Amino acid sequence: MKLSRYTLISFILLIVIAAIYRALPGRPWGFAPQFAMAIFGGSVLKDKKMSFLLPILSLLISDLLYEILYINNLTDIRGFYSGQIENYLLFASLTFVGFFVNQKNIGSIVKGSIASPTIFFLASNLMVWIGNGGLGRSKNLQGLMQTYVDGIPFYTNSIIGTLCFSTFLFGAYYLLQESSFGKKTA
Predict the structure, then answer these.
(1) What's the domain count of the chain?
(2) Is residue 102 part of a domain?
(3) Is residue 162 part of a domain?
(4) DSSP letter (8 states) at residue 27
(5) pLDDT tens, 57-87?
(6) What's the CA gap between 159 and 26, in Å, rounded?
(7) How far apart are CA 8 and CA 11, in angstroms?
(8) Does some domain include residue 84?
(9) pTM (predicted TM-score)
(10) Are 78 and 66 in contact, with CB atoms under 8 Å apart?
């Protein structure tokens, strides 16, 4: 994908809208567009640096919004937290999944949409268990398994959310490419 002015504006809007959505109070935990953005960026963008920025900038903006809400006592969720850098690196690494997603193959998109939250679930819960994450789980197999069990609601919503948002992102991109507008700008 060539990075035209229209494309750049579209991606900036996508980043901001996704960030605002992620910070909405009452949103189901884990149901957010950042996984889909990572695989979409990795699959569609030729500029690989930009593909990594897509989910990271969205996370940063939403974390800023969370922090503002937290400071104003509108949420119990902090925007800035310990382990944030590791979390951002983990999210950025999910862009690699997108490198292997064929943007024109529904099966490939579905596989990427399942692989991305699965990798995140396994790695992030392992990191929480290793760092204790305030959960106080014992440092044995039982403690690790309990940490994974604790994360299942987030994981389930992440899979559903990633499938939904991937459908939207890849579907909209496909329709744009097939439209007369997409053919004029290509």
Answers:
(1) 1
(2) no
(3) yes
(4) P
(5) 888 998 998 899 899 998 888 888 887 898 8
(6) 18
(7) 5
(8) yes
(9) 0.84
(10) yes
